[in-house]
Amino acid sequence: MLHRLIGDLMTTAVVSVRRDASFKDIVEHLAEHDITAVPVVDNLDRPVGVVSEGDLLRKQEIQADPGGHLAAAHLRPSERSRAHALTAEGLMSSPAVTARRQWSVVEAARTMARHQVKRLPVVDDTGRLVGIVSRADLLRVFLRRDFTIGEEITTDVLSRTLGLAPGAVTVQVTDGRVTLSGTLPRADLIPVAVRLSESVDGVVDVTNHLRAEDRVGHTP
Fold it and tell me: pTM (2 decimals)?
């Protein structure tokens, strides 16, 4: 089965900054390019961190409330130090959590969840920045047409991978929700067919109405 890789989904025109970029320069980059974060790279274009809007807003968090209604923010020493920083090196979250072009959507999504980040700089084999992938990019797989999803399940999963005869299983797809109906030669193929169908890009859910032939060849 053909899965979309991060190299297919990432943005290649990446806006990045150097370690010595000033606070105001970073804000201007975000505004100019309508983005919410920038990777910070070294002289070899290798990501060393990321500065996000959240990192920049710490500057506001440490300010006194002009109206005197709110108590001062309680920040850890490391956060307070970053809030007072004036350049990307001091402001950034580091080390940079990165991805590779050959990663699957699942691998990237799990990495984002594990590290609680919204985007991943993408690097090549030398560690050089070649793209960036966001949560919105990963969600693009769910924009695939129902017809395309059904064709992939019918051709790649049922016929090519499981070797089932054409028409043995009916595949219906509505808004990414897949329904499998029909009879398989063995009961142990049913969970395999469901699991492989679930892994097809763009599938939201799989409803299983599959049955298995009994040992004497009759349908129960």
Answer: 0.76
